[in-house]
């Protein structure tokens, strides 16, 4: 009984998973795409807050952008498991970090609210992200 209650309180806080997604980005390819696409590409993908986050970390700027790119792809995959007809543009998926550095997602496509948890990681040449939609 106690275990059931604990389980319910954890799922109440975090939500029950209903969709998941993952994505991995190779830095050299991503860098080339950014160079080719220029400002228009950046604006199509990233929000001003995401650009500002990366710009404030010049040494690792490309990794933060690649991590956010991976997170957006992972979120779009996870959403598509829940509703394959829902179209979300890359710059409508916004990643922001809280004061502990934890990344959080906000969907700005003005459709039904969905709660999505993400996690991202990056090393020298690779960025990876996972996303879980919960209800
Ligand atoms: C928090 C921690 C696990 C991040 O590990 P890391 O190896 O530096 O992270 P990675 O390089 O794999 O990934 C970086 C991403 O992790 C995410 N991240 C950073 N801090 C995080 C945290 N506290 N929780 C979850 N995700 C976090 C960010 O999205 C970051 O990328 P971004 O800056 O581009 O948004 C690491 O700093 C750590 O182990 N700290 C020791 C424990 C600690 O102090 N925890 C703090 C809160 S309890």
Quick take:
By secondary structure, the protein is α+β, with helices and mostly antiparallel strands. The protein is 46% helix and 27% strand. The radius of gyration is 16 Å and the shape is globular.
CATH class, named Alpha Beta
The CATH topology label is: Ribosomal Protein L22, Chain A
How many E strands?
Answer: 5
Rg over C-alpha atoms, rounded to the nearest angstrom: 16 Å
Small-molecule binders here are: coenzyme A
Please identify the oligomeric state: single chain
Structural class: alpha+beta
Q: How would you describe the shape?
A: globular
Nearest-integer average pLDDT? 93
The biggest beta sheet reads: 3 strands, antiparallel
Account of the 3D structure:
With 135 residues, the protein is of the alpha+beta class. It has one domain (15-134): 4'-phosphopantetheinyl transferase domain (Ribosomal Protein L22, Chain A), CATH 3.90.470. It is built from 4 helices and 5 strands; from the N terminus they run H-E-H-H-H-E-E-E-E. The chain has a 3-stranded antiparallel beta sheet. Strands 2-3 form a two-stranded antiparallel sheet. Strand 2 (93-97) and strand 3 form a beta hairpin. Helix 2 crosses helix 4 and helix 3 runs antiparallel to helix 4. The longest helix is centred in the middle third of the chain and has 22 residues, at 61-82. The two termini are 23 Å apart. 24% of the residues are buried. The mean pLDDT is 93. It binds coenzyme A. Residues 64, 67, 97, 100-103, 120-122 line the site of coenzyme A.
């Amino acid at each position: 009984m106690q275990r059931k209650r604990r389980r319910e309180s954890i799922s109440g806080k975090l939500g029950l998973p209903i969709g998941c997604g993952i994505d991995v980005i190779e830095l050299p390819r991503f860098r080339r795409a950014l160079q080719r696409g220029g400002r228009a590409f950046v604006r199509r993908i990233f929000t001003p807050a995401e650009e500002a986050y990366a710009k404030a970390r010049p040494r690792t700027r490309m990794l933060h952008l690649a991590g956010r790119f991976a997170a957006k792809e992972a979120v779009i995959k996870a959403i598509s498991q829940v509703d394959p007809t829902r179209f979300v543009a890359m710059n409508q998926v916004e990643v922001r970090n809280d004061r502990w550095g934890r990344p959080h997602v906000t969907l700005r496509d003005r459709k039904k609210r969905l709660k999505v948890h993400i996690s991202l990681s990056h090393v020298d040449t690779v960025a990876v992200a996972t996303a879980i939609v919960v209800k």
